[in-house]
Every structure is written in structure tokens, then in C-alpha cells.
């Protein structure tokens, strides 16, 4: 298959560099929120957030993904001023203390702009450039962007997720957003595609997406997957507490690495680095 965005082993841009030559990379999750499903409240304090971000870098994270608005099922939208107030000081300090690219996990262009101004080097948009202003911003700043699929919105997305063919529909959606990105002037090699595990999907939908994740990885763009500690892992293992879902997460990470996923987004960086290193070596 043609490989429009996926061919370079090293993605270099003015704000950072991602070297895929040894295989899959880890994006560490840093939620500066009171209400994230897994680490809500742990890193609302600025010093605690910065320390955790730097610890993940020390453990081997290739990207630190800072989010200030929870997108867990049922979560209500947050005002952008508050999102900026939470995220920006942490991004500023992290970007001064590490060369690892910091990504901003937001769907709001004004939040992404403030984060990029503070030193973030990438954008993680769970609405896949729904807003034109976000597409313009990413093009203008020449930064990589993750395009994630979501059916509905966090407040209601788990009420009745419905698909005829979940894999085909999610791929179709992402490829449309790729064309939107290109139309706005974003180069194809700056695009990462993510099926959005748990975002308007039942357990069966999530399993199908993971089972066929190689189809995403073969589209010609870098593929990113975030299944870490999610509800689907609790459903499969019976583990209620997200902190107890580390081994279940490890299974998804091993599977994704073996199926050519380029980046896994995880909370437990130290443990998942071991999984990634071993599977990368076996491959
Ligand atoms: N999942 C979450 C948030 N952002 N971004 C991408 N690209 N892919 C994902 O799967 C993804 C994401 C949800 O996880 P988390 O950030 O831990 O929780 P919360 O949204 O409650 O803060």
C-alpha cells in the first residue's frame, strides 16, 4: 500500500523529534484534572503534575500528553479559561525542563494556542480537527496532530453507540479528517490516527477495533492507540479500580506493538516500557 505519511523513521519538526526506528513509542498521560477516570485529582497541584511528567520522561516516555478537561463518559465540557489555567503553567515548566515533546490534549483551538505558546509541541484533538480554527492553528504552527475518532460527545457518547461496521466506519471518518487536515495545509506526515478506544463504543466495538488495529496501522499514517486502564479492560478482567487494570493494559499494549501501532498512550509508563521493549525486540 502507498505510504503517504508513514515512511519516515524519524519525524522531525521545529518543536521536536520522534524516532520510530526501534518500534513503538510511549505517550505518557498527565491529566491535570479533578475528575479524570483514572488519575483525576492526583496532579491538579502544579508541582505534583510537573514531577509526574518528568518522572514519565525518566521512565522512557517519548511524549507527555497534558490534558486539563476530562473526556471520560458522562464528563461535562469545561470553560477554556479554566482549561488554560490548569494546563499552561504545567506545560511551560515541563517544556523548560525536558526536550521530550509535550502534547496538549484538547478539542479547543484557544486552549491549543495557549499551550503551543507555552511550549507544547503537538496537539492531541479528540474531535479530529472538527473546528476549522484548530486545523488552521495546527497548519500555521507546523506541529504534528493526533486525529481521534469519537461517536457523539463525552456527556452522552456511551448511551447508545451504534455502527454497521465499526472498523470501516472509523477508518472512513479518519480518512475524511485526513483530507480536511491536508486541505488546511497540514502535511500528511504530521498526522497520527487514533480509533478512539472507549469514545462512543461498546465493549464489542472496542474489541473489533483492537483486533483489526493493523488495518489502521497500514493506512499509511502513524497509528496511536489509547486503551490504558479503560472501562473495556475493567469489563474483561472484572477489575473495578482503574489502578488495578495494569496487566489488562499490558495485554492491549503488547497486541498493539505487535500489530505495528506507532504510539501507545498509557498511564503506567514504567511498566508499559518493559512490554514495549520486549515486543519491539521480538519483532
Ligand atoms: N483517551 C483519553 C483522553 N485522550 N486521546 C487520544 N488520542 N486517544 C485516547 O484514547 C484518549 C485521548 C481518555 O483517557 P484519560 O485521559 O486517562 O481520561 P480522562 O479523559 O478522564 O481525563
Number of domains: 1
**Unreliable sequence segments:** none
SS element count, helices: 10
Rounded Rg: 17 Å
Name the structural class. alpha/beta
CATH class: Alpha Beta
Query: Which ligands occur here?
Result: 6-hydroxymethylpterin-diphosphate
Quote the distance from N terminus to C terminus: 21 Å
Give the amount of beta strand, in percent.
15-25%
The H-and-E topology, N to C, reads as EEEHEHEHEHEHEHHEHHEH
| CATH fold group | TIM Barrel
Range of helix content: 40-55%
The backbone outline, from C-alpha atoms, is: globular
CATH architecture: Alpha-Beta Barrel
Overall mean pLDDT: 94
CATH homology group = Dihydropteroate synthase-like
**Cross-sheet strand order for the largest sheet:** 3-4-5-6-7-8-9-10
- Give the biggest beta sheet: 8 strands, parallel, barrel
Task: Give the total of beta strands.
Answer: 10
List the helices and strands and how they pair.
Layout: E1 10-13, E2 16-19, E3 25-31, H1 46-59, E4 63-67, H2 80-97, E5 102-105, H3 109-118, E6 122-125, H4 132-141, E7 145-148, H5 166-183, E8 191-194, H6 203-211, H7 213-217, E9 222-225, H8 231-237, H9 246-258, E10 263-266, H10 269-282
Parallel strand pairs: 3-4, 3-10, 4-5, 5-6, 6-7, 7-8, 8-9, 9-10
Antiparallel strand pairs: 1-2
Helix pairs in contact: 1-2, 2-3, 3-4, 9-10
Bound molecules: 6-hydroxymethylpterin-diphosphate.
Amino acid at each position: 500500500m502507498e505510504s503517504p505519511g508513514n515512511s519516515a523513521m524519524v519525524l522531525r519538526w521545529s518543536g521536536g523529534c520522534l524516532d520510530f526506528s526501534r518500534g513503538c513509542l510511549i505517550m505518557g498521560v498527565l491529566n491535570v484534572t479533578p475528575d479524570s477516570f483514572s488519575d483525576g485529582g492526583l496532579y491538579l497541584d502544579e508541582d505534583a503534575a510537573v514531577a509526574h511528567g518528568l518522572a514519565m520522561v525518566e521512565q522512557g516516555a517519548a511524549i507527555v500528553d497534558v490534558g486539563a478537561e476530562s473526556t471520560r463518559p458522562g464528563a461535562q465540557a469545561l470553560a477554556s479559561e479554566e482549561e488554560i489555567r490548569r494546563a499552561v503553567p504545567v506545560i511551560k515548566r515541563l517544556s523548560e525542563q525536558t526536550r521530550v515533546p509535550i502534547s496538549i490534549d484538547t478539542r479547543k483551538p484557544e486552549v491549543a494556542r495557549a499551550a503551543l505558546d507555552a511550549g507544547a509541541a503537538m496537539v492531541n484533538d479528540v474531535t479530529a480537527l472538527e473546528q476549522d480554527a484548530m486545523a488552521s492553528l495546527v497548519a500555521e504552527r507546523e506541529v504534528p496532530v493526533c486525529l481521534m475518532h469519537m461517536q457523539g460527545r463525552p456527556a452522552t457518547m456511551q448511551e447508545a453507540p451504534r455502527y454497521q461496521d465499526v472498523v470501516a466506519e472509523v477508518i472512513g471518518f479518519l480518512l475524511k479528517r485526513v483530507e480536511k487536515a491536508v486541505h488546511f495545509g497540514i502535511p500528511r506526515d504530521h498526522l497520527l490516527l487514533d480509533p478512539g478506544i472507549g469514545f462512543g463504543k461498546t465493549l464489542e466495538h472496542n474489541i473489533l477495533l483492537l483486533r483489526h488495529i493493523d488495518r489502521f496501522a497500514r493506512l499509511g499514517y502513524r497509528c496511536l492507540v489509547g486503551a490504558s486502564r479503560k472501562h473495556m479492560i475493567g469489563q474483561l478482567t472484572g477489575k473495578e479500580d482503574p489502578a488495578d487494570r495494569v496487566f489488562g493494559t499490558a495485554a492491549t499494549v503488547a497486541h498493539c506493538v505487535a500489530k505495528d501501532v506507532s504510539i501507545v498512550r498509557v498511564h503506567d509508563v514504567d511498566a508499559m516500557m518493559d512490554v514495549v521493549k520486549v515486543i519491539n525486540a521480538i519483532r
